[in-house]
Every structure is written in structure tokens, then in C-alpha cells.
Amino acid sequence: xxxxxxxxxxxxxxxxxxxxxxxxxxxxxxxxxxxxxxxxxxxxxxxxxxxxxxxxxxxxxxxxxxxxxxxxxxxxxxxxxxxxxxxxxxxxxxxxxxxxxxxxxxxxxxxxxxxxxxxxxxxxxxxxxxxxxxxxxxxxxxxxxxxxxxxxxxxxxxxxxxxxxxxxxxxxxxxxxxxxxxxxxxxxxxxxxxxxxxxxxxxxxxxxxxxxxxxxxxxxxxxxxxxxxxxxxxxxxxxxxxxxxxxxxxxxxxxxxxxxxxxxxxxxxxxxxxxxxxxxxxxxxxxxxxxxxxxxxxxxxxxxxxxxxxxxxxxxxxxxxxxxxxxxxxxxxxxxxxxxxxxxxxxxxxxxxxxxxxxxxxxxxxxxxxxxxxxxxxxxxxxxxxxxxxxxxxxxxxxxxxxxxxxxxxxxxxxxxxxxxxxxxxxxxxxxxxxxxxxxxxxxxxxxxxxxxxxxxxxxxxxxxxxxxxxxxxxxxxxxxxxxxxxxxxxxxxxxxxxxxxxxxxxxxxxxxxxxxxxxxxxxxxxxxxxxxxxxxxxxxxxxxxxxxxxxxxxxxxxxxxxxxxxxxxxxxxxxxxxxxxxxxxxxxxxxxxxxxxxxxxxxxxxxxxxxxxxxxxxxxxxxxxxxxxxxxxxxxxxxxxxxxxxxxxxxxxxxxxxxxxxxxxxxxxxxxxxxxxxxxxxxx
Length: 685
Known about the structure:
The chain is an alpha+beta fold. It is 62% helix and 12% strand.
């Protein structure tokens, strides 16, 4: 019976499928099961109505998630209904093949799952309806809240407008009050002034009444006196103007007379052939001979012709107005020539000032250079624009080998000879040179596997001196001007830049010397620190010898500890003891003095077991602690320079016979030995 009923049920089509995915079956069994299962959603609805107050506290975000889940279940139900319809169609077409029991059991399981799906769907529909009602309530509540907020916002706006109106009224009232107070103060002041005037008038009236003075006669006399006073003032001003005009003319005449007197004196001193040259001051025109920055720019006037000098002097002394009056009295040709000359001079001064300003900017850039190489590179690249030439090179002197060096645009170093060419004259005579008309002699000889002379049509050679010393550090060579020869302006620029470069080079040298000195001190401190960390005397002895090698470059060193009136040595990791009667080391310990011996083999106290065997001078010094007790002795030969002095030789100026930080080798050794003695006295072996 069950099998036939199931087949009968499956053969029927579903009557209807609603939008929510619920399917209605014609079988009573399925209908009873659905009724039994539908009791649960009614219970759920009763529970939900009981707990409606708690569910209202849910957020809108959680409600959206539950609605989305219900919609997913609806979609799943619709898909299963479609599969069920397809399954019913298949079963109806193949009724005869459904006699096997397992197939019927599968179909029953499928139908049961569909019924369960329907039950879940009805539950979800009930919950969805409940949530929709809650959502409508919340939306209504939110609308009411928004309305209240809008009303409150409008009220707030109206109140703010009223506040602004009241504040503007109060400000106006305050301003009116301040104005009224000011007016009141002014009126008070006027009243006080009027009272004073009234009092003065009352006193005058009393004076006039008491003395019986005729007022009309007094007024007429006063007017007459005032007119006479005004006339005298006008006459005085007119006289003063005439005096000033006469005084100005007198000053001009005096200047002309003084200039003519100078001209006469100069003409008397010089011959007629040297008339123009006699009017030129050496201090004004011989810039390279003096080789110092002039006090003024008179050389630009003095270097002109005599007629042009007079024109410029007249313009400076008489002023523009008088000069124009003088020009207007001349012919048209003369006026044209003078105006042309003045315009050319104006353009010349404009060019001069622009180049001078450019030079100042470049000098500021040069001062920011951190190394001599950067300075030479920037000078060689920037100066040709200022001097209007083809090339400009800064050559510096290496005292170590007597050669000059500079750098190309690729920062490649080039070298040249110091004692050959026109540059040799600058080093010999300590004087700058302005050379024109294509000199036959080479300017400089470069060294590139062979001597290569360098010629030019014009050259300006400027020496660069040390600060406060008459020593040339190098030369600035400027070649091939745009004109036949370099002018006085270029000479003036050259004097300025050479003096400035001397200062910069001195600063860079001092900086490198300071860095080398700091390096030397740090090296010495590191060595003393290593010695201070020695664990025993053997390690300390080895580190002391190593410090003399690293700092002073010595290779032959002997060091002895002094204990119990004996010399202790740790040569080749073996301890050896010697008496204080042995060698120069023992004599230095006994006498507590340092010795410098030129030939140790000829010394009476020489002992080959203790002393060094060499033909070089020997330096021996004992190490004394604070209690003036000898704790060791050092013996070394004076052969090599300090390692720090080797670096100093790369600088431009190297002090002769000096080592370390501008101190003789013996004094530097003595100071280091004293530091070494203090270090050893603080070590506990």
C-alpha cells in the first residue's frame, strides 16, 4: 500500500508555487506532516511576540544580515522546487521501472528533505514578516527623530541669527559710546582752553582799563612793525641765496685752479714727450706693481686720455646741470662727441659693475669648497666668463717636488714646471704680469711624458701669496683675452680674486692640518689605550714597540722594564734580565736623564747586549712615574719621519725639519714617553 500510494503521489503535479517558495501537495500524509511541523513556527511567533521588546534593541545592521539569509533560503527553495518538478516528470515517464525498493526509499528521503525545507521556509517567512514590521516601526521612529532634528536645527539657526543681530547692535552701541566719550573729552579740553583764553582776555582788559591805553594806535603801530619785519626777512633770504651761489662758484674755481696747478706741477717734473704720462699717478694706474686692492676706482679715469680725463673730472666736480650747460655752448659735432663718450663710459661702468657682481657671487661659491681639488676645478670653470678669455687655470705648488699641479674639466690632474717659462719670472720676481702682443716665450711648460710648452696671444699671470708671508703658493694664469691685451678692469679683478684665493687656500690648509693633527692625537690615544689594556708585561712590551712603529715609523726599538735595579726585556717571548751597569739604557736609568748619541759605537757605555747597533743617532729616555721612580726605559734610533708628517707633505707648505704637530722629533718623543710612563704607572700586572 505504501508503495502504490507513493507512486500515486509522485504522479501528481504540484498545484501551485508561490513567490516565497511554499509548495502545496494533494496527499493527506504530506499535508498532515506539514500541519504537524507548522506548529513550531506558531510557537516561535508567540515567543517572538513575548520577547518583542528585546528584539527592538537589535541594530539595523543585524536585521539586514538576517533578511539576506532569508532571501538566500528562498532562492534555495525555488531551485529545489524546480528539481522536484523535473523529478516528478521523470518518475511519470518511467513508472514501470520504479519497482525496486531502494529507489522508492531515496524518493521518500528526497520528499522528506523537501518538506523540511518547506517548514524552514515558513519559519523564515514568519521571522521576515516580523522583522519587516520592526523595520517599518524603526523607520517611522527615525523619520520622527529627523523631523525633530530639523525643527531644532531651524530653531538653532533662528536663535543664532538673533544672537548675531544682538551682538552687532551691542558692538554698534559700544562704538557709539566710545565716540561719545571721545567727543566729551574733546569738549572738555576745548572748554578748558576757552576758559584760559577768557581769563587771559579778562586780564588784558583789566590792564588796558587800568592804564588808559589807546587800542587803535597800538594796533596800527604793530602792523607797521610786522610789515617792516617781513621785508627784512625777505632781504635776508635773498642775500643768503646770493652768498651760497657765489660760494659754489668759488669752490668750482678753486677745484679748477687746484687741478690746473697739479697739471702745471706735473708738466714741470716731466719732459714734453712724457706729458700725458706725467699726469698719471702710479698708485692709480700701476695696479700689478702694487698688487693690492686700491682704495678707489680712480684708475678708470686716470687711464683715459687727457681730454677725456677733463670731461670726467668736470662731470664729477661741476655736476650734471653745469656740465650740460657747458656742452650746450659747443658746436653740434662737439656735443655729439662728448655725449657719445659719456654714453660709452656709462655702458663701460655698467659692464664693470655686472662683472664685479658676478665675481663676488663666484667668490662666495669658492668659499664653500671643502677641498683644494674642488676649488681648483671651480676656478678653472667659472673665471673665463668674468675675464672674457678662453681659459683660466689655478696652478698650485708642491714643495715636495717643486712642480705645479692643476685639474682639467674631467678632474684629471696635470703638472707643469715651476722654473721654466714666463711663470718662472712671477716666482722669481714676486710680481704679476700682463703680457700682450703674442709673446715668443712660452707661458708654461706642462709635463706629459715630455715637456710641452703652452703659448698664448695674451696672458695675465697673478701670484697667490700666503697670508702674512712673502711666499707664493701658486699662480692664476688667464690666457687669450677677447681683445689685444687684458685691461685695467681685468687687472683689478685679478688682484681681488688672487687675494681671496689666498685666504681660501690658507683656510683649507689649516683645516687639513687640523684634521691631520686630530688623526695623530687619536692614533696616539688608541695606542696608549691598547697598552693600558695589557694583561702582562710581555704583551705591554710588544704593544709599546708597536706604538713607536705606527706613530713615529721607527723600526729599531728596545724597551726595558726596571724592577729591583734590573732591566727586564721580553725579546722573542723570553724574559731576560740585565744589570743597570749595561749600556746606555742602564746609564739613563741610573742618571734619570735622556740622551741623544750620534754614534753609539764610539760611546764608552755601549753594550751590544742591551743597546741598538746602528750608525744612526740614538734616542734614550727613562720612564718616570709620579714618585720620580724609573719604571722603564726606551731606546730607539732617529731615522724616519712621523707617519703624520708624510701626510703633511701633500699640503702646499711643509715646515722643514718638523715632525708631528709642528714640533721637533725629540720633543715629540719626550712628550709621548711621558704619557707612556703615566700609562704604565696605572697598570697593575
